[in-house]
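Model: You mentioned two targets. I'll fold them one after the other.
Researcher: Yes, keep them separate.
Model: Target one:
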Amino acid sequence: MNEFVHLHVHSEYSLLDGAARLQDLVAKAASFGMKALALTDHGVMYGAVPFYKYCKANGIKPIIGCEVYFTAGSRKERGTRKEQPIHHLILLAKNETGYRNLMKLSSIGHLEGFHYKPRIDWEALERHSEGLVCLSACLGGEVPHHLLHGRYNEARKAAQRYQAVFGEDFYIELQDHGIPEQKKVLPELIKLAQELNVQLVATNDVHYLNQEDAEVQDVLICIGTGKSIQDEERLQIPTDQLYLKSGAEMAALFPYVAEAVANTKAIADKCNLELQFGRHILPAYQPIPDGMTSESYLASLCGQGLEERYGHLDMWQQEHTREQLHQRLHYELSVIGSMGFSDYFLIVWDFIAYAHRQGIATGPGRGSSAGSLVAYVLKITDVDPIKYNLLFERFLNPERVTMPDIDIDFSDERRDEVIAYVADKYGAEHVAQIITFGTMAARAAVRDVGRALNIPFGEVDKVAKLIPGSLGMTIERAIRESPELKGLYESQQRIQGLLDMARKVEGMPRHASTHAAGVVISRDPLTDTVPLQAGGEGTPLTQYSMEHLEAIGLLKMDFLGLRTLSIIERCMNWIREQEGEVPDFRRVSDDDPLTYEMLGRGETTGVFQLESAGMRRVLKDLKPSTFEDIISVLALYRPGPMEFIPKFIAGKHGQTAVEYPHSDLVPILKDTYGIIVYQEQIMQIASKMAGFSLGEADLLRRAVSKKKREVLDEERGHFVSGSLAQGYQAEDANAVYDMIVRFADYGFPRAHAAAYGVLAFQTAYLKAHYPVYFMASMLTAVMGSHRKVAEYIIECRRMGITVLPPDVNESGILFTPRLAAATDGEAVRQTALAGAPLEATQADKPLEAAETAAAYDVEESGAAETSAPAAEEGLQGVIRFGLAAIKNVGTQAMESILRERRERPFDSLLDFCRRVDLRTCNKRVIESLIQGGAFDSLPGHRAQLLAMLDETVEAALKWRKEREDLQIQLFDFVETPNWNIEYPDIPPFSAGQQLDLERELLGLYLSGHPLDDYDELLDGEGIDRLMDLAESPDGSRIIVAGMVVSVKAITTKQGKAMAFMELEDQVERCEVVLFPEVWRRSGELVAKGALLALRATVQQQDEGFKLLADELAPLSAASLAQLRRSRGAAPAARAGPTRSRSLQPGAGLTPHWRRRPARLQRSAARPPGLRPDWPRSPMSGRPQAPAMRRRRRSASSSRFRRRRRTPACWRS
């Protein structure tokens, strides 16, 4: 019976309940010959748009609906489920009005009625009932629920009210899944329908595709509820009949009410919704000045912006150049206006201007929008498209009308402020963030299913780890590609069941979350176009994902939070406060020698887009000297074009002759040495040779990148014929076209590369000129990751920047740049190494009393306004560890410390406990502070302070309680009682104990390293340091020593055991591969924290180097000597300075790892306007005007000469 239509259907978008994929549902309905199909997911409309498209593609009428949650009370009340029961109700959209009302009801449930479930009530239902068909739903519906509990009159009243609202569009729903409760209410439902003259309709509560898929739903429910299938108390569905049945099966279920089956078609005939795709629902900018349109207002703003951007440049004085700029601007404005996008640009201009007014950092641009002069003069982007030869048509093609796409980077710490501004300006009902769905990828599906099936964790974990983590990996593919996984699948029945079930749920949505950047702004209330639900930070969330929003015509904008902007912003704030002025990047030369010297040495840790090990190697070979080089390397360092990097480098250095496919293309390809690097170059070539407009050239670029044979042949004909018309030979035209096809996949948007090149240059400039500020800002940015903090502290060591331990009197919340006296610092280092207590004035230059409090309260800008003394001779730049980076120290505890410190410094542990709020800064917090070294500047060493902590806290609490009991106010209290709390006579922690505590609390060794005692030994002949190996030739044989950070044992495809371990010394970390034979011989030596010596072979890779171990031994003089003997003669000196330690004494070279880092050897060149006789800032090394020195806080710099024997506790 093909007339039957399923009207009660759940898909995978009934999250962790529905087990049927949309495509499969539609395909099976089509296979039954069904003419229509409904979708009614629980409380949401997530799948409506893709469902509609699948149905249309399969010749089936889509019926969009929802199984809503309904309360007979008020949706705004928050009673218990017993006080205010939640019922189910099926609503189906008959037409566009019904669809709009359905979206509004779904939105109301989520935004106004969410309590356990997104509930609607009678008021909402009556207001938005037009165009909807209503079914009384399953046993969870209000009418059958009353009947099930013997409340016939209440059921009748409820049915009458639905009937009053929906009239003939209300149906009483019949279901029969073999459940006793359904059998009980079926006669009652039929009787009620007859009494009220309400039509009946038969449905199946579809949750999965086939009967055998009932177990899949059971597993999904277990995943969602955190239960296992062995748990008898779990939520269980007492039937396996919730599958997509044929019309014949449904007719057989209801032979006694054939009209109920027939009515499914009658309802389907009522439903004729047609969704519109391909339209643009663009918002309107407000307010527009009187007498102006959005087009004229945009033109006026651009005219002002053009003069602001170019008026101060020499080129503006040339009439010809001014005319060219005006022509380009007029052209872009005419294209924007003809496409109807003027309001769009005004909206973006407005919120960018707001961000600038509020001091919120914005990026220079992202994607192809940097090619627009309009965007540049409006200050939407900060990359000059004229200077960098960027093409507008790559962004907005007049010959291919598509939505503009301007993605904006904001400081990740303040992005939400801009979204809040947009919501406030255009109204909350017009602005929403975009939903995204977390799906069960291969590994996640295995782990989730394993828990649901109650399979032991170790067994599940082993299987999950055998699935490669590569993008797009599936379980099916993993079984094919992994012999070990395939073996387990074929030999173990339980593993086979696990993987088979995981395959059935793989890729299904698991949860909904907020898209990282997407925001939609609508002209009309959003609920006219898309259903909404609650999101974070008070901004609603669309129920449709990004691709479906674009399909229905809503304008999507990306508000991205970029950490790099926060790093730059914080760094600039510190520079402004300490140095008196900041670099103006609009006027800083983009060929700054110091910056390019640093880039050429590959010292780019922390530099935006340039800090990977592979990129550092490229930069060392490339030796970039211009901004064009930075743009090119960003475009080339990607899979595919990476193979052309050697050719690019050889071309730059004149090592090979640069070849061009035709001499006319030299101007287009000369900056990239004959290689097509950018998509814009393809467009320029097509314009030059084939006479294409840039719009046509962009269409060609898009067409050839798809690599479809018929398209390639067609476009070849167009290109060659155009080239012939321009006077080129067919042979040359075909050769150039072949080159275009080859590079079409690799081409990168030059505009995007230029925009991100700006950020790369800015961060490199700050690192080269203001190293301490920059590294302090980098450390602050990664405080949440102990691994990244350790990595950047290692970089500080390499740069010669001291990172001081945390201190309750000196540390801010963030890592802070500071000034410290070099002589005092040396004393502190020696004392700390001995584990003795430190005096409060030893660590840093003392502050004046007036500035002690605020100088380190850096919660917002990272520094407070103070009048710290000017830099003096003998001070050096350092970085002070931030309190927020200490484990267990929360925000409220830090606020309490800073608040009390504003009054005066702490002078002892007792003084600290008396003054801070011990409810937030509790004993656990204080223990962490002591163990992390934050009390080292106060009397008592760490072991003593921990031993007396309980007594001290109790005394402080007792004193505070006595004060409260006696109602003694703080300002009346004259003298502290003379408590006699003795410092216990116990030895300090050993160096090893102290380091272990630091590692636990700070995530790294700070006051030293377990290898420090072996420094003299490791300076010996023939022993390498890890930091030197990055430039060692591939295959070099070396001997190194280090500490094991982690170890991971695996089994090879041949069933042999081997391992990977991570090894570190004081400066560097690397991976070491222990092949089966080495692991068999020496595996018992490898444990976390073990100090090892090893002989190995260097393997250089794009992502850095790794070591292939030959032999391991516990670290000792004897083991190193044995490794040297077994290696034989010392290896030949390797190319470059890294082998200077192997030279004989007296060779006149300072060992590389002892040399003052080259980056600290500052250029003699000085910025214009700075006098050479001015004193230099110890923070940045730049000449400093006297006026700048009057308002200074203590801060930090790397400009000090590194000592040959810097004590280890301070090198960190």
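Model: Target two:
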Amino acid sequence: MAQTMLDEHRTPRRFWAEAVNTAYYIANRIFLRAFLGKTSYELRFGYASSSRAFRVWILEAKQVVETCKVSFDETMPCTIPAFELSGDDEEGTPIFEDEEGVVDDGDAGATAPAAAPAPSATSSDDDGEPLPMASSSLPRQQAHAEAGPAEDAGEVTSEIVPSRQVQRDHRPHRMIGDIHQRVTRPSVNSLAFFSHSAYVATFEPRDVSHALSDPNWVNAMHEELENVERNHVWDLVEPPPNYRPIGTKWVFKNKHGENGMVVRNKARLVAQGFCQKEGIDYEETFAPIARLEAIRILLAFAASKGFKLQQMNVKSAFLNGFIEEEVYVRQPPGFESTRFPDRAYKLRKALYGLKQAPRALYARLKSFLLKSGFVMGSVDKTLFLLSRGGDTLIVQIYVDDIIFGGSSHALVSSFAEQMSREFEMSLMGELQFFLGLQIKEGPEGTFVHQAKYTRDILKKFEMGDSKPMTTPMSTNTALDADEDGEAVDQKEFRGMIGSLLYLTATRPDIQFVVCLCARYLASPRTSHRQAVKRIFRYLKLTPELGLWYSSGSSLFLRGFSDADHAACWIDRKSTSGTSQLLGTSLVSWSSRKRASVSLSTTEVEYIAAASCCSQLLWMKATLSDFGLKFGKIPLLVDSTSVISVAKNPVLHSRTKHIDMVTPPETSAQGAAHGAPSHSELATQVAQQLVNLIAQEQRRRDPQEIGYTDFAALQPPIFTTAPDPLDADDWLRIIESKFSLLPRLTEQQKARFAAQCLHGPSGAWCASFLAVQPAGHQVTWDEFHAAFRAHYLSPSLIELKQQEFHALQQGNMSVLEYVQAFIRLLQYSPEDVDTDLHRAARLLGGFDPTLLTHLGHRYDSFTELVNVAIDMEQRLRQAHEDQQRKRLASTPPSSPSQRPPVEHQFPPHIYYLEEPPQQEQYKAQTEAQALAKIPVACEYPDVFPEELPGLPPDRDVEFRIDLVPGTAPVSKRPYRMAPDELKELKTQLQEQLDKGFIRPSSSPWGCPALFVEKKDQGGKRLCVDYRPLNAITIKNKYPLPHIDILFDQLGGATVFSKIDLRSGYHQIKVREEDIPKTAFSTRYGLYEYLVMSFGLTNAPAFFMYLMNSVFMNELDKFVVVFIDDILVYSKNEKEHEEHLRIVLSRLREHKLYAKFSKCAFLAFLCHILSVKGVAVDPSKVEDVLNWK
């Protein structure tokens, strides 16, 4: 070895002693095979030389005392025999000689327990260049070396200087280099590889600062960032305001080769996914992975067909998945940009650690395979198949590991090349090691085992030297809770059970006993650990056991099931076992304990057979994707009672407690699943067993549609119809839902529609079905006709027609009269079939006073309605003016009735001087008429008396996003006083007439209550939405602070304030969120079509609307806080212009203001003046007097 080192580096032979020292330094620290990453020192003594957990070394016996119960001999000298290098033997191998003259060879396992620190030596060659030498691990003694060949002149002796630390001659000259610089590594087949491996970092850094101190880890981090850049994962951008990027972290791990050496330092940059928020940084996280049964089925199928499977791996897998969400991450620690330290990386693709990373990778792989012509499995979504010219290619995905194979070698090679072009792949050749399974494919079949894993866990739990056992458990073992037994370490016990559970992937012989021991994970005792150790001792004898899948075997399905009745003597519950075979290959098995006590042997055997049947049907559906079709599938049981019950389901004492489901298609299923002869103790999957999993089968069968498919379309629930047209609307909606499921039968339509009827309508449906003949299944046409006859009877329609012909305005407003006219018009569309006819009929019902001002000639129905509403407002305003004049001309009868002294201001612009006294601070414009105010009088439609109905469709809709997994909340209505009930009925009718609410059959419902109005007295109808708000995702939009808003008013002296009328009701609720706004009252359940008061995110959504409307005017001459608008200017002329712009914006967006509240000088409890902004003194007094 020393000679090879000298020849490789072209070093003169005078450095022979240094080469020998270096060779021994390396030989004493490495192995030719893997030893779990331990040094020779650790293997001999059990701990590292730097460890403080020293154990006792017996000098005479030359061995370590393993037990912790040892008496220390303090008279024994604390020394260990020293070793020196005495020379070479006849074969040129250095020999160690201890103090007693005992000669030992230089094996790594016989290295001295306490090796001295590594020295270093430096010399020069003939050219005078310094030659750095690697450190040596020999003891601090003078080394003797033989002279070189005859041509070398003289002998060279180097004095070895002791050193406490290993000196590095390759410290990094720059810790953070160019991340685009490629990182190279020597080839494994070259001699330089071993030199490289000797100098790679063997430690794993604690943090990034520790890693930056070593150039090898710096190179590893460069390599990771190069992968990120090469895959175009991110862009360095400015993060959005108020957005906190997700943190990143470095994860460091050493990669070991087959010989146990550290061959690579791997640094992985991961995102701190625990900081992500659902609905903001990610939506879905689930990514399908292959089941172990699916892997075994593929192995058995490939072995039967005689083709070998290949394996490949996607490099930097998660960096290939595109993400849909907008995600920002911080710059990697230690690699922050000096130019843009405040920027963040916007992700194009997924990063390790993100919650959606596995799903994004699966979506990318799935999309590519489907575009390449593959067909995805109908049951297993990780299975993809490609058929070309009679050849088949099968691909199975497990996260970033892909196994594939096919009947054509050209097709397999083409797929590998195609994947390598699209992704950066690691082609691993034939399948040998997958998910811990060792796979050996040969001409006679495939052998699947876990021998390496078995030996590893034996060594991990120190059971490698235990006495082997021929069985995993004793026949007379009866485990119980053993509450009086000695408790053992839970962590160790759970680790042993977890290791054994994964071993059951290829070892069905230990399935039952491992599951039996796993029942006592919560409180393990000594008896339980002894039972687990018995399993390990059995594994010591049989580490090579596995599954054999023979080639050329016929492929047919069959299953076995068995159960023991009340075998557990503690709780008398039963355990069932099943196994399923594909030909002669065992591909699936199970051992389960029932959750409840079985009342008979027949019951437990029957349920075990049903479980086996369920697995067989899943396997049948999976194998159908492989092109295998099965007719009769035998299910072998050893119970004649189960066979008899399956063939003839009579009701007797053994089966009357078993829930028998009536089969929907007995003849078809019975033909598909016949029974073998009883002499074989076999029975076919009987139709009653199929019924137990019929729902699952229908879900997987695309030709069968159940109510769950219909319910996914969210059909409306119908309870009762105050208006007959509501019933007609419900029928039309249900028929539109049916049109989305074209394979529904007429009988299914009737059944599904009946399940949407609740309350009174549900009672009617039950009575309707009760009178049908026995065995008759109602069709949709019959149900439709009966429903219309009940809710839309001719007599009821005729009554509504008479009500329409007699309709007059009476005491209703114009808007209320028009709404009633349109509602009743639907019952008599043939009477007013044209627009002019509708206008004439509406005109005839107006109030006579209004009619005299309207005239009789209008071109359209819409024109008549607009003119009537405008005329009504003018007449009302004129009447109010007359009333005010009459009150003003009447002197007060007493001093107490005198009106307060008012401060006069210009009618439309207000110069604010010193604020008036507290007792004089009142609203000044209550009595002002709109017609007298310049600018504002030009926009009468912006100041209506009431909102004209539902608001128009806007870009901003109120939405209610719920926390995932929440159920609807429903509360009983609050108790109200008689006067409140009267007010409730009045306000409900008002909101119904305006179209703000409607009757509801929603499963949601919060109680309604009244809140006192602060401006003009009276009560406002509100809803206690606290239960709904508690499960609503909060909108994080921050409302502006009032003091900050008023900072914009500096220098302004002219102000106007506009208050929107019922601002929240001017935004619609998103259609799918309307049922969530439902509220319960004494008079029924209603739901809001407009944004209601009390909803948690209502202020934020209204601010979104107002900001979008006044975006160009904000902070120039407009300040907006929810529904309050303040217009400010420096002079009168400028203010008139600003006011017109604001009112034009309101008219354009059909936003309406409340005129009576637009003249107050108080804005948000503050008073404005040229001196600044002051708090309203009335509010100060309220705070001081509050108790």
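Researcher: Noted. Anything on target two?
Model: The CA atoms of residues 214 and 240 lie 36 Å apart.
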